[in-house]
Fold this sequence. Notes:
By secondary structure, the protein is mostly beta strands. It folds into two domains: 1-34 and 316-328 and 363-415, no CATH class; 38-315 and 329-362, Neuraminidase, CATH 2.120.10.10. It is 5% helix and 47% strand. The protein contains one helix and 29 strands. The protein has one helix at 2-20; strands at residues 30-34, 36-42, 48-56, 59-68, 71-72, 76-81, 93-96, 102-109, 117-124, 146-154, 157-164, 185-191, 197-204, 214-218, 221-227, 237-243, 246-247, 251-252, 269-273, 276-283, 290-296, 307-310, 314-324, 327-335, 341-349, 358-359, 373-377, 380-389, 392-400. The strands form seven sheets. Strands 2, 3, 4, 5 and 6 form a five-stranded antiparallel β-sheet that branches. Strands 14, 15, 16, 17 and 18 form a five-stranded antiparallel β-sheet that branches. A four-stranded antiparallel β-sheet has the order 1-29-28-27, with no helix packed on it. The longest helix has 19 residues, at 2-20.
Amino acid sequence: xxxxxxxxxxxxxxxxxxxxxxxxxxxxxxxxxxxxxxxxxxxxxxxxxxxxxxxxxxxxxxxxxxxxxxxxxxxxxxxxxxxxxxxxxxxxxxxxxxxxxxxxxxxxxxxxxxxxxxxxxxxxxxxxxxxxxxxxxxxxxxxxxxxxxxxxxxxxxxxxxxxxxxxxxxxxxxxxxxxxxxxxxxxxxxxxxxxxxxxxxxxxxxxxxxxxxxxxxxxxxxxxxxxxxxxxxxxxxxxxxxxxxxxxxxxxxxxxxxxxxxxxxxxxxxxxxxxxxxxxxxxxxxxxxxxxxxxxxxxxxxxxxxxxxxxxxxxxxxxxxxxxxxxxxxxxxxxxxxxxxxxxxxxxxxxxxxxxxxxxxxxxxxxxxxxxxxxxxxxxxxxxxxxxxxxxxxxxxxxxxxxxxxxxxxxxxxx
Length: 415
């Protein structure tokens, strides 16, 4: 009853704000530093951690900053190296597992070059102050692609799920036009502070080659979302549930029926609260680019019909923040004009009510090839993205607070 009341209050305020037409000064963004590929995570305490890749004199470095009292702290470095695989879509991460146990991953090229690269990982037991020696969560040793990693808590261990190309035969994209097609797989494993990998499993034997993955914790266990691939080249969003120590066969969140011969490089996101699961994704089935969200009330076993979040000028690269069990904020990259991109966002609820579409104010140009990040931190929406200004890529962030009347959201009564 309390949750329903909260949701009602949120939505009534949304409607009032959408119609009031008042204007206030746009919130100012904070510039973190030079880099690309931001990843945004939230500690159990509620503090946010952003990581990104910066160029160095001899290669690249994985940096991160901790948000405390509304300000980003000093830049810290996990590791650096000369032979990394750096890509706007397949970006590294720093992920708090508990308050003190953290994990990080980055991508290192193999000698074969091209799309042959490995996942490297490290563990910190002191909240990012020091890091272990690097290790690989996979041990196949093939000159193929390994990436699009999601790190997550797995009991008292660290879980990882990734796209794994060990079955591929020398090309980045193997046509899936027959039942025995060999292509990208989705695999998972667990490791502890010592870096010993165990419980490696294959989740799906044929997936899209280069779409981001995501994982959430429900009251009944973990769920993972990813873009599947059939031999007929249908590439819809699937979900797999972790039940009794095993990842179950993936099931479609919704049968969009998007048939496309190549990977769209546009992955899903998932959030959970108890048995409520929300998945948000991009599809261009029937040549109609849209962003959709779907609710599950039974920990991802079944989903209601999806809600169309946006269908005008949509590029994709979605973000998701759960406000209550019945309302979320969704972000996506959109076309602001014929020559520029923007970060769009709005609130929606499980009944299909839509808040006003807003555009985030950015200091520079938002590259089309980027994946803006969104989280709900201290009852505010926190955006982190890649800006391009003066021919330099930079990481920017911005809060949308409950006191901003032009943002289209009211989060004062949210979870």
